[in-house]
Amino acid sequence: MQENVQGTRFDLLYETMPWHKVDAVVFDIGNVLIRFAPDDFIKKLFPGDERLQQHMMDHVYHGPYWLCFDRGEMTYEQAAKRLAQEQGESEEAYLHALYGWFQLKTPIEEGFRAAQRCKRAGKKLYLLSNYPQQGFEFVHKQYAHLFDPLFDGGIISCYEHVIKPDREIYELLCSRYGINPDRAVFIDDTLCNIEGANKAGMHGFHMHESGMMDRFFI
Asked: Are residues 153 and 185 in the same domain?
């Protein structure tokens, strides 16, 4: 792994993809390929109950255990039991918040269009995402027809017990798949994750506005 080599922000440097500079394109999943909108999800899971909606946002989606799921350190059942003891709602209500969002996730067509364009350009495609095991396995199975033809591999945090933006997860991806970080670009909707990739020597594309990938990957 290269030391002290800082990657760049492609979304700041280029109007369109510099194909000649890239061998591998790495995609986050949430809000790049699959929609993740907790505010919308929670309203559908607990319709008409604003108090419970806010409770679940505070203690589940923004609570102390969410990163434990991403690191593969805790199951939903374990968290629901603890939350019921600590916060007072039923285990069933917490499990509804934890599992119910699976069914509400939908593909982001723009993201898959970008992946298809990269594939047609002959680039290797990989996933790099913070994701809980139960959620990833459900989404991957549901949308296998979209993922499997495009991606050559990837790192999902729950299986490796390390998360973005820790440098280790980017280096693990590059090491496992023989990726030269200086010839790779990572797409993510969260700026600190792009900065983490840059510190590991990878280039980044901060996907923060609808239409960005359609304009860039041409």
From this structure: yes
State the CATH number of the domain containing residue 139: 3.40.50.1000
Residue 49 belongs to a domain: yes
Place of tokens 């990989």: 126
Per-residue confidence (pLDDT) for residue 4, from 0 to 100:
62
Query: Into how many domains does the chain fold?
Result: 2
Domain C-terminal end among 77, 104, 131: 104
3-class SS of residue 27: strand
66-100: per-residue pLDDT in tens?
999 999 999 999 999 999 999 999 999 999 999 99
Mean pLDDT, the chain, rounded, equals: 96
| pLDDT tens, residue by residue, 10-51 | 999 999 999 999 999 999 999 999 999 999 999 999 999 999
Q: Does one domain contain both 47 and 89?
A: yes
Last residue of a domain, one of 61, 78, 104: 104
**Phi, psi of 48, rounded to the nearest 5 degrees:** 80, -5
The span from the CA of 184 to the CA of 204, in Å, is 8
Sheet holding 203-206, edge to edge: 154-156, 124-129, 24-27, 184-188, 203-206
State the greatest distance between any 2 C-alpha atoms of the chain, in Å, as a whole number: 56
HSE-CB at 92 with a 13 A cutoff on CA atoms is 0
